[in-house]
Specification:
The protein contains 15 helices and 22 strands. By secondary structure, the chain is of the alpha+beta class. The strands form four sheets. It has a seven-stranded mixed beta sheet, with helices on one face. The protein starts with a strand and ends in a 9-residue tail after the last helix.
């Protein structure tokens, strides 16, 4: 067995271990010497060609929905060990999915071709084209003209028009989401909790929901929507109270307000349908309610995501989240975990109970822990939750199976446009097509068509079903999971899928000293927040 072992702070070494002359399969392993690094995974082992074991540092009740998420997609081990050490992996994905990349025409389109060797049900059409526009109105115009077959996001003002158009079909999107106004506590004046609390009280969130979001949207009284178990445990958010907010600002030393910025990326989102409009509304409210002068600063999408994730934005910023899987860890651990840098210095009052809660499978037993977490978020205000938006998109009436599943990006291999080519218009150009190190929806939507994960989300219910593994089975206390891989699966480069590909794909994301742990920004946010990055220097 080949084993990747954490040996020192400066390097990972691979050592050969004989498993006996009768064994023809050499299985890779990723092994941490102990769990002092603070993450979830102790070891990942290729037991045989079609079996992978995950040994956990503690019980992880969200293991199955986590491994179904697209950022943990599997690529060939040899591809990762060569192309993964360069930036070429960002534009050269090799997967097992229903489509494969034909070309990326920068600034214009991405063209995928049907994978005729796909192990599952093959798409009914040959070519899938992705185009993009930041304008909801432009997306709808192209849909009406027939130049595109489906769009990703519909402006709230256009819901009724689409519903009344016989040539179009309205597609509700039911996944939980949140819009929030972020702050970074390493930059003054946001290093002062009273300033953050003042902003929490000084934003009229109901006005935003009433004026800019579609019917069915709600003010966010918690960061996590209530449809997620324990999402709404604890005290609800502050009421709008500009007088109390100004008093807090005065106590913090800013009786006349201060100057700052509102950063945004001009990318349409279900939770943020018109970013510039929202930014101007926030700007006006901050001035009128708190005396804060805020300059609106647009950033390029990739730069914005990178700067936000690294905690480098020195002002306010608008971001949001759509559920990747149906568990509270997806919302809270990703944003407020110990190693998350987005809001500045991580806060022990939040991340310490999060660690405890993530190990409790029983929802009722976990409730007091998440009450503690949500109360700490309310008190310390790393961000201000604004809204949970109702959302929808649209397609031409002839597209079959055009709807969205509750969790996970849409699988266009299940759609049928009734012709050889389907054209989809999304909200922006992908940042890259290596989604192990991306978190934007435009990248993950395209990745979902190319790479696959061990488990998957059902189209109708969003429940976890088999993927590249027919099942992942826990031991009695859920501290070890054994995944049974689907046999006869091939990658689009012709290589056979086996257990070593799983180990290599996870090792590239988890191990900061792995030569393939390069990615785009190197942040590997999902690996970091949901599993914990392994680094021998922390052992």
């Amino acid at each position: 067995m080949r084993r990747i072992v954490f040996m020192s702070a400066t390097a990972l070494t691979m050592t050969a271990m004989s498993m006996g002359s009768a064994m023809s399969f050499e299985g890779d392993s990723l092994v941490a010497p102990n769990c002092d690094y603070g993450g979830k995974i102790s070891a990942i082992r290729a037991i045989d060609e079609h079996t992978v074991s995950f040994e956990m540092c503690s019980a992880d009740p969200a293991f199955e929905p986590k491994v179904a998420f697209v950022s943990f997609g599997i690529q060939p081990s040899e591809h990762i060990k060569t192309v993964g050490t360069t930036k070429d992996i960002l534009t050269n994905p090799i997967g097992t999915g229903p489509f494969k990349l034909e070309s990326w025409n920068r600034g214009d389109s991405i063209i995928l071709k049907r994978n005729d060797d796909y192990w599952g049900d093959k798409p009914a059409y040959e070519t899938l084209v992705f185009r993009w526009s930041t304008s909801g109105a432009n997306q709808l115009n192209e849909l009406r003209s027939g130049t595109v077959d489906q769009i990703s996001t519909l402006s709230p003002d256009d819901f009724s028009a689409v519903q009344n158009d016989a040539d179009l079909q309205f597609l509700p999107q039911s996944g939980p989401n949140v819009l929030y106004l972020g702050m970074t506590n390493t930059f003054p004046p946001f290093d002062n909790v009273k300033v953050r609390q003042a902003i929490a009280m000084g934003i009229d969130r109901q006005r935003i929901v009433n004026n800019y979001l579609p019917e069915g949207s709600e003010v966010a009284d918690y960061f996590t929507p209530c449809t997620i178990p324990n999402g709404c445990a604890g005290e609800s958010w502050y009421d709008f109270d500009p007088a109390a907010a100004k008093q807090l600002l005065a106590e913090a030393g800013y009786p006349d307000g201060f100057k700052t910025k509102i950063y945004l990326r001009d990318v349409f989102r279900v939770y943020l349908p018109e970013p510039t409009t929202f930014a101007v509304e926030f700007q006006a409210q901050l001035k009128a309610n708190l005396g804060i002068d805020a300059e609106v600063v647009p950033l390029e999408s990739g730069d914005f995501i990178g700067q936000a994730s690294a905690g480098n934005l020195d002002g306010l910023y608008m971001l949001g989240w759509g559920a990747d899987y149906p568990h509270i860890t997806n919302f809270l651990d990703y944003h407020f975990g110990k190693d998350v840098k987005q809001f500045g210095e991580s806060l022990p009052a939040i991340y310490e109970p999060l660690i405890k809660g993530s190990q409790i499978a029983d929802v009722e037993l976990a409730k007091p822990v998440y009450e503690q977490v949500n109360n700490a978020i309310r008190e310390l205000v790393p961000m201000v939750p604004i809204s949970h938006a109702a959302a929808g998109s649209a397609a031409r009436d002839y597209v079959k199976n055009a709807g969205y599943r509750p969790f996970g990006a849409k699988q266009f291999g299940l759609a049928d446009p009734g012709k050889d080519t389907m054209v989809v218009m999304q909200n922006a150009e992908p940042i890259s097509l290596y989604c192990g190190d991306e978190s934007d929806g435009e990248s993950t939507l395209v990745c979902t068509q190319i790479t696959e994960t061990l488990l998957d989300y059902a189209q109708d219910s969003g429940s976890v079903v088999g993927g590249l593994a027919t099942s992942c089975d826990p031991n009695d206390d859920a501290t070890a999971w054994t995944c049974h891989l689907r046999q006869g699966v091939k990658f689009t480069d012709g290589s056979d899928f086996d257990a070593n590909d799983v180990v290599a794909s996870y090792a590239a994301g988890l191990d900061v000293t792995n030569p393939s742990h390069l990615g785009n920004t190197g942040a590997f946010d999902y690996f970091s927040s949901l599993w914990g990055l392994m680094n021998a220097a922390t052992n």
